[in-house]
Amino acid sequence: MSTSADNQMRDLLDAITARLQRGEAIDPPVARSDDAQDELEEFVEVVGALHASLKPLSPNQEFAEDLRAELLDGRAGFFRRSRRMPARLSLAAILALFAGCVLLLLRRVFGSETAHDVPEEVVATPL
Amino acid sequence: MKFLFSKRIDFTELDDKDLVALAKENKAAFGELYERYLPKIYSYVYYRTGNVHDAEDLTAKVFFRALSHIDNFVEKGAPFQAWLYRIAHNLVANWHRDRSRRKIIALDDYVADSLKSEAPDRLTEESEERNQLLEAVRRLPEDRQQLLLLKFVEQMSNAEIGTIMGRTEGAIKSLYHRTLLALREDMNQMPPGELNRRQGGEEG
ipTM score here? Predict the structure, then answer.
């Protein structure tokens, strides 16, 4: 493609993108030749896909509030503190917490029976 | 003199230049800059990293760095916004460098995985085509990714993008044309259903 055709394509693409950004409909653009027209239509498809896919995002509200507090007041919230931990450490902490809860639960359920069993065995053992 | 009465100032009515001047002495003014730019910087970093965890981590680093260096910031052509994006760009570039050094899985697979599992709520129902497109965008060189994000996500003009990237408007237009060419070629090379095949392979 010649430089002037390149420039024409460059300007057309820029204009199409600007119209999309303004929320305006895109009329079928016209290029100088059939080849260029085919190419332009492919480009318009890519630009349309980019426009539809790349949208602004909002961060998690809790993250935003915690980070603000940490920046302005110097205090880190639970959310930020926990996010700072490496993934492996977070996983280990969750597993330890879960194991602790299970252990406590087991003690509550079976703890009383064990307490009764022990004295009986002690009594039955000949001295 | 007005700094002495800064508690009475409605920060939302001030422009960035005044806020930056105030923020050197008053953290509440920095808070307003934070509110203005948090979603923009977060979006930028999210699309560059592809996962929420690193996007939050790097976004926090951007604002901490901005806060600690705001005393030295002098507006010489590039406004506060451009300065903030440059900090974000540098931190993301370092993040990619660190990752490539201790890479265990392929970046493309990682991006596909993280998009599947960690994308924000509004992105959970991403179409296959959208995933393919985002993967293709992330395969582009850094400057081209930056251009696309500033143009489409931040809806910036060529002049604004030029200020952030340190290039002329004409150079931005040319870079945009070359970026679309590369993106079109990349997407044409990817066979239809490629993502399905990858995801099927991972699951099976």
Answer: 0.73
